[in-house]
Specification:
This protein has 520 residues and is α/β, with parallel strands linked by helices. Strand 3 and strand 4 form a beta hairpin. It is elongated and about 85 Å long. It starts with a helix and ends in a 7-residue tail after the last helix. The strands form two sheets. A six-stranded mixed beta sheet has the order 5-4-3-2-1-11. A five-stranded mixed beta sheet has the order 6-7-8-9-10, with helices on one face. The longest helix has 33 residues.
């Protein structure tokens, strides 16, 4: 297929647009069903690229479009820097684009189409795995996370984490693209599509379920948009007083709900202790402050009882790039001049913590950390019965970010088999049970108040908690095996060609070594 320079520019624009399409399957649009076909236009574009190099370019452009669409709400904070980051991270999709063309271009045989249904999702997962490294931005908008409200997908997550859900979604897209565009492989593509339907059905039927083990009454305090640390504390205090007599077991405040170190402000410790005594339950607050004599500012989940802080504290370990620290500040410190990047780097905690709160072992997370699939698994293996994420997304209050963030609680709950409370300062606050199912109503960004949830507890261990990221290992194994097979075939082909050229007639060696007749 010959493509002119003009059509090359058009194809580039189409690649950016095609890469952006999957964003509609995430909250706030939350068109979860769209995820099963959202990659098809991009796949069809890549398979018709004039060369592998051009497919890699269109993979890069599509990846840039995907990141811009799913992270567009960062633009008011990072300005042009969000485009720079998206373009750099989009390079991760260049090999994926090359692979799509390699497997689906032209009229591939049925075997190659089936291989595409395995290898294209595996390569996509490698991209997600690399960009999930916290220093590259973290695992926001993993494609499998778009299925947070689909029960069969959540059952898959209990088996292999969000990684397995991503593999399933991309496989469905690849099978659909082959079904549409590769007539010679339609039977194989239809069979692959049927398998994509049967996999979640099988998980729904046979995946082990968490065993109910009682309930706990958790109150979430959401003050709403309140300016200033003092006003924020006062609003949380007022809302918590209203919980007296409601027989709660635990009260959770959002991220940065306390703007002062409690050792330096004993008056605030006393007020919190009085609140705990009044409602008859411990408080889990979040302190965002510099410690006296310490190295810097920490964000910490702190338990407070009727006698004051209990001594149980968790310091946030995974920080938001640019929001809470600037990576390679000596090189990228200029980001503070063009956006709302952190003027001072926050400090990191050392280890996860499981707290004893009202007889329930609670595993706290802070904000961004709930995006990482391993966080809930680690806490569940450490004995946590309840996961709690304290968050604040007020900077992005009118964007998709609050809804996207709240949706992650469903996945972490399903993966770990433990309920999860997502408590925020300004919304969206939500609670999900041990299967990922919603519990009670959400507190949206327009709400200010306190809500009590009857949270179901569960025992047992999910396959994801027990076996970890086996889906990632399977994807990597598939790609390495395919690469080894391709290398072996190329080596055999090269040997056969060399062997054919190396055969000579009897006497050819002697004839070749005879001296040429002298010229006169």
């Amino acid at each position: 297929m010959r493509v002119s320079a003009g059509s090359g520019w058009r194809r580039g624009a189409l690649a950016v647009a095609a890469g952006a399409l999957p964003a509609l399957s995430f909250p706030a649009p939350s068109l979860w069903w769209w995820a099963y076909a959202a990659l098809v236009p991009w796949l069809l574009l890549l398979r018709t690229a004039r060369s592998g190099g051009r497919a890699a370019v269109e993979g890069w452009l599509g990846g840039t479009g995907f990141l811009l669409a799913t992270h567009h709400w960062l633009a008011p904070s990072l300005h042009v820097f969000v485009v720079v980051v998206a373009a750099l991270m989009g390079l991760l999709w260049a090999p994926w684009g090359w692979l799509v063309r390699r497997l689906l271009a032209g009229s591939p045989a049925p075997g190659r189409a089936v291989a595409a249904v395995v290898l294209v999702p595996s390569a996509w997962l490698v991209v997600e795995l690399v960009r999930s490294w916290e220093y590259l931005g973290g695992p926001w908008a993993l494609l499998g996370a778009s299925q947070w409200q689909v029960p069969p997908a959540l059952r898959l997550a209990s088996l292999g984490g969000v990684w397995l859900v991503t593999l399933w979604v991309v496989a469905a897209n690849t099978a659909l693209a082959a079904l549409v565009a590769v007539p010679g492989a339609r039977r194989a593509a239809a069979a692959a599509a049927a398998v994509c339907v049967l996999v979640p059905a099988a998980a729904w039927a046979w995946a082990p379920l968490p065993r109910p083990s009682g309930t706990v009454r958790v109150a979430v305090v959401q003050p709403g948009v309140v300016a200033g640390a003092d006003a924020r504390f006062d609003a949380g205090e007022r809302l918590t007083r209203g919980l007296a007599g409601r027989e709660v077991d635990l009260v959770v405040w959002g991220e940065s709900s306390v703007g002062y170190d409690l050792d330096e402000r004993p008056d605030l410790s006393e007020r919190l202790a009085a609140l705990s005594a009044r409602v008859g339950a411990p408080l889990l607050v979040n302190v965002d402050a510099r410690r006296p004599g310490g190295p810097g500012i920490f964000k910490s989940s702190v338990a407070v009882g009727p006698r004051g802080p209990t001594g149980e504290r968790y310091d946030k370990m995974r920080l938001v790039p640019f929001g809470e620290y600037v990576p390679a500040r000596s090189l990228l410190g200029w980001a503070t001049a063009v956006g709302r990047a952190a003027e001072e780097d926050r400090r990191r905690g050392d280890a996860p913590v499981v707290m004893e709160s009202a007889g329930v072992r609670t595993g706290p997370l802070v904000c961004f950390e709930s995006a990482f699939p391993d966080t809930g698994r680690v806490l569940a293996r450490g004995g946590a019965e309840l996961l709690v994420a304290q968050s604040a997304t007020s900077t992005f209050q009118d964007s998709w970010a609050p809804s996207q963030h709240a949706s992650l609680a469903a996945l972490r709950a399903a993966e770990s088999g433990r309920p999860m409370v997502h408590a925020t300062l300004t919304g969206v606050s939500a609670v999900h049970g041990p299967r990922g199912e919603p519990v009670g109503g959400r507190l949206g960004t327009e709400r200010s108040g306190a809500a009590v949830y009857e949270v179901p507890l569960a025992s047992g261990t999910t396959a994801y908690v027990r076996f970890g990221d086996w889906a990632v290992a399977a994807a990597l194994g598939s790609l390495l095996s395919a690469a080894a097979v391709a290398a072996a075939r190329r080596l055999r082909h090269g040997r056969s060609r060399n062997g054919g050229r190396g055969k000579r007639r009897p006497g050819a060696r002697r004839a070749a070594t005879r001296p040429a007749p002298a010229r006169r």
